């Protein structure tokens, strides 16, 4: 395989540098753990069942090497579970399938030990490797995600790194901010609806602020614009609410209390963060945004008599 190791394609999902944050165990891909059943289920039957429920990209974690033929035939990728990370015979056999491999970090594994597993895959001729930080055993009782390690693994290896959130989406935004290329929920889908929502929200709204996408085709470019628009819509809505608060606090609010000097200053400040657009192009945009906010504030207060004087 001579693919660019910075981005790994798992069926229709690509995770990695320059690509959107994928949610595995959510909208973008699913995964199935055969380890959870301790080898008591037939791999081909379990995978066939998963396939009836989900037609998109499917990753499967084997219980043992005996599961690999079924995975080779019916899955889009293989997960080396944290518990098996240093089972090198399994790692090498899994890599030889030629499918993308997701290597979860063992709970006590160091960065070097984790990265070495990717090198085992490469030595088998398979460079389609994504890493997955799945946490260490800590004083908190369960496993705790190490986001510093996630970041270091991404920088050191250049490979995509996923964050395994399990059924708790509360660290989704932190993982995206730390550089995660994908968020891994589950396995399965049970009980993860709230976590999936948090992961989707972080991947959609936060990711455009903290990572750049480099789309290579029209659909991908439109997808990237959709994600920027989602972040923009969230901020515009929040801005409108704050502008409404200002109208209530000002002595004279609404259109009657418009402060053009303040508007000029805020456009100039924004132009410093948006040098491509500059003041000239930003001015009409912000004028429309501000007027929408004022209109909304007046509508919500039932007329133009805004501000404390109006309240009196
Ligand atoms: O800062 C104010 O005085 C506001 O009323 C807020 C705001 C804005 O939306 O940013 C709206 C109208 C003013 O002309 C200037 C700015």
TrEMBL record:
<feature type="domain" description="Chorismate mutase">
    <location>
        <begin position="212"/>
        <end position="301"/>
    </location>
</feature>
<dbReference type="InterPro" id="IPR006218">
    <property type="entry name" value="DAHP1/KDSA"/>
</dbReference>
<dbReference type="InterPro" id="IPR036263">
    <property type="entry name" value="Chorismate_II_sf"/>
</dbReference>
<protein>
    <recommendedName>
        <fullName>Chorismate mutase domain-containing protein</fullName>
    </recommendedName>
</protein>
<dbReference type="InterPro" id="IPR036979">
    <property type="entry name" value="CM_dom_sf"/>
</dbReference>
<dbReference type="Pfam" id="PF01817">
    <property type="entry name" value="CM_2"/>
</dbReference>
<dbReference type="InterPro" id="IPR013785">
    <property type="entry name" value="Aldolase_TIM"/>
</dbReference>
<dbReference type="InterPro" id="IPR052899">
    <property type="entry name" value="Class-I_DAHP_synthase"/>
</dbReference>
<dbReference type="Pfam" id="PF00793">
    <property type="entry name" value="DAHP_synth_1"/>
</dbReference>
<dbReference type="InterPro" id="IPR002701">
    <property type="entry name" value="CM_II_prokaryot"/>
</dbReference>
<keyword id="KW-0808">Transferase</keyword>
